[in-house]
Specification:
The chain is mainly beta. It contains one helix and 48 strands.
Length: about 550
């Protein structure tokens, strides 16, 4: 956004003492007055109710549209004097935007952002664009007034004409705009006021490709979502434990994508090694690899791009890792279950007990000596290895709620590939089951009257996180069943590309985002309840 030149005069301090100041500063007077026409530049004085914190001024004051040279600002206690150049554009409304970052000397910020306007012509423009930015961090909104046909496809390469911070709730409002065509983008606040480099920063677009703003017109609900990350999941680093296996770390949780990865391991002789890949049971951002044969020296991990519905899920990458021989002297440990472990269970679905080991276990046996007991009575079960570190135990009959169980394992049956075996010849573990997980249903009724391919998306707001999606039918209805009880957020979006995922839009080549609507209230799902929500009004502006 650039920097203003601050001219700080002799320090003016408020008298010390008294109760703690928690009253936000207020703008008391503007000279010349807000709304002045035929403004010729020169100085504008802003008088506030309290002494200001000088360090907050630079971030808080912006002149819009952005000038080629930032005006100087003089700070004098509770006054700010802004010096405009005398070479202002004709018939242009200029805005002094004061964000909530402005604070008094006690660090109390403005209660809301402010704007004052001056026009070099006979009247103040009254055009308005407002909306919501959906983003987990502080966001700003960049606005460009399109100059001509040549400017339209490459507008993002230049500094935006208008910049404003979204509120803590995500709301923003551009006021005093002249009629014309505009394009808009939401960005992280740290990148506000700069040209957009498409492949290097996250941004969100509106479902309006062009905002046509008429004379004194207001365009509202220009809403945008900013994605959490840029591009797909990235391979960050890798480490080896012995010459046969290692672990790879990714930028985000990988989950079931491990089965879709196109990952190759190449040795120093350029030969491709046969390898098994499986998830780290303790960290879903990591996966293990296990080679069929020993690799001496270094190996190159080559990851190809993975796409779904023409969108990148996993980015390509390459990492070199040294496969060093070594001796593992650690004991094999059972990480889960333990004495404090509680197995979450369901009434209609038998969930397996995941026995997680600290190291690789040889999978050479057909039978394993494990006893599962309740009140000293053996419980019949089935076993299946999920990976060389995770063994799933599934009882033939469902678990009983709020019940203590005992697990007995013979150490000789679980030989580690590396390291030493379980310390005790017989391992005893006690664990407990939870109450049966409660489930409810959600019936949604909307004002949708025609086929618009609208998706309802329900996301749990606390751990464990769940996401449910359902298509809204032609009668405006949809039903989501078997939802774990808890608090959820509800979003609707138009699935224009039929991939059941929200599309944020692209700026080069320009493609507008999909329409969305965030339901304002928290949806509370209760066990064994069917919750019906009547006539949800969707603002179908797309």
């Amino acid at each position: 956004m650039g920097f203003f030149l601050f001219v700080s005069c002799a320090a003016i301090m408020a008298p010390p003492g008294g109760p703690k100041d928690e009253t936000p500063p207020e703008l008391v007077k503007v000279t010349p007055s807000d709304g002045t026409s035929y403004f010729e530049g020169g100085q504008v004085e802003l008088l506030f109710s309290e002494y200001l914190d000088e360090s907050s001024i630079e971030r808080a004051i912006t002149v819009l549209p952005l000038l080629s040279q930032n005006p100087e600002i003089a700070f004098k206690g509770n006054r700010l004097i802004i010096y405009f150049p005398d070479s202002l554009s004709l018939n242009q409304t200029y805005i002094i935007s004061i964000s909530r970052d402005l604070s008094d000397e006690h660090k109390v910020k403005l209660s809301k952002g402010l704007q004052v306007a001056f026009s070099t012509g006979p009247q103040i423009d009254q055009g308005l664009i407002s909306g919501l930015v959906d983003y987990g961090e502080d966001a700003s909104v960049n606005l460009w007034k399109i100059q001509n046909e040549k400017d339209s496809p490459t507008f993002y390469e230049r500094t935006p004409d208008y910049v404003i911070d979204a509120s803590s709730e995500g709301n923003y409002e551009f006021k005093f705009l002249s009629q014309g065509q505009y394009r808009i983008a939401a960005v992280d606040r740290l990148l506000a006021g700069t040209p957009i480099i498409p492949d290097r920063l996250v941004y969100g677009l509106s479902w309006f490709p062009i905002i046509e703003l008429g004379f004194q017109e207001s365009v509202r609900n220009v809403n945008m979502k900013i994605p959490k990350r840029l591009g797909g999941i990235r391979m960050i680093n890798a480490e080896s434990f012995q010459e046969l296996w290692g672990r790879i770390t990714f930028s985000e949780k990988v989950g079931n994508l491990v089965n879709e990865m196109k990952l190759r391991i190449i040795d120093e002789d350029s030969s491709s090694q046969v390898a098994t890949f499986f998830e780290d049971p303790n960290d879903n951002t990591k996966i293990y690899f296990l080679l069929d044969s020993i690799v001496n020296g270094s190996a190159s991990l080559e990851l190809d791009e993975t796409k779904r519905w023409n969108k990148t899920l996993i980015e390509s990458g390459s990492i070199r890792v040294k496969m060093e021989p070594g001796i593992d002297t650690t004991d094999l440990i059972i990480i889960q279950p333990n004495l404090k472990y509680k197995l979450d269970i369901e009434a209609k679905n038998v969930k397996p007990l995941k026995i997680i080991f600290s190291n690789l276990v040889q999978l050479s046996k057909d039978k394993y000596s494990i006893n599962l007991l309740k009140d000293s009575v053996n419980i019949p079960y089935s076993l299946e290895w999920d990976s060389p570190m995770v063994l799933s135990l599934l009882p033939h009959k469902n678990w009983e709620p709020q019940t203590n169980y005992e697990l007995k394992l013979l150490s000789n049956d679980f030989s580690p590939t590396f390291g030493r075996p379980l310390k005790d010849s017989l391992t005893l573990i006690n664990f407990k089951t939870s109450e049966y997980q409660g489930f409810g249903s959600l019936i949604l009724n909307t004002n949708l009257e025609k086929e618009e391919n609208i998706i309802a998306k329900l996301e749990k707001m606390e751990k464990p996180y769940y996401t449910f999606r359902s298509v809204v039918n032609l009668d405006g209805e949809t039903v989501l069943d078997e939802i774990p009880e808890g608090n959820y957020s509800l979003t609707f979006f138009q699935d224009s590309d039929n991939n059941m995922q929200y599309s944020y839009g692209t700026i080069d080549p320009y493609e507008a985002s999909e329409w969305f609507y965030n339901f304002q209230d928290t949806v509370k799902i209760r066990s064994n309840w069917d919750i019906e929500m009547q006539e949800i009004k969707l603002d179908l502006e797309f």
